[in-house]
Design brief:
The radius of gyration is 18 Å and the shape is elongated. The protein has one domain. The chain is mainly α. The protein has five helices and two strands.
């Protein structure tokens, strides 16, 4: 993978679009368990949810597409190297890897549950979504720590294209 000093404008746009859609979908998930059961023909769950499940489902599909595009751009355009060496640098690399695993696993589990009819994947999808929010929250806190405590311009790499 190529190394660069910052992220491209498209990489930045995809990062923030993905973040907004993930947070939106997490908040818009209330009632999806009932919606999945109704979608799969469970007569006990025939009452419609209070939200439109298609919005949640298709937002998840878009998130998956954005993540795949982000990974392709990383391969082609490269990324900035970690700002720290040793265990801190390794933690940053593995933290990003965990984010990408969750960004892929969460919508894939949801797609398999909804379109594949695998009801048993609904709960793992929900757990992955919760884990994704926690890991993304930690990612945001670390970025703010870099910006306000270390003053090392790490956060600015995801704000201004280079």
């Amino acid at each position: 993978m190529k190394t660069r000093t910052g992220y491209s404008g498209l990489q930045i746009l995809l990062h923030w679009a993905t973040a907004v859609l993930v947070v939106f979908n997490w908040f818009y998930s209330d009632g999806m368990g009932r919606a999945l059961r109704a979608h799969l023909g469970d007569a006990a769950s025939s009452r419609p949810p209070s939200m439109n499940p298609d919005i949640h489902v298709w937002t998840g599909v878009v998130v998956l597409g954005l993540v795949l595009l982000r990974l392709a751009l990383r391969a082609v355009q490269g990324t900035p190297r970690a700002v720290s060496d040793g265990w801190v640098g390794r933690a940053a690399v593995w933290g990003h890897r965990l984010l990408y695993v969750l960004l892929l696993a969460t919508p894939l589990l949801g797609i398999a549950a909804w379109f594949g009819g695998v009801k048993a994947l609904g709960d793992p999808h929900e757990l992955a979504a919760d884990a994704l929010l926690w890991v993304a929250g930690a990612h945001a806190i670390v970025a703010l720590w870099h910006h306000h405590v270390l003053h090392d311009r790490v956060l600015l790499r995801m704000v201004r294209p280079e």
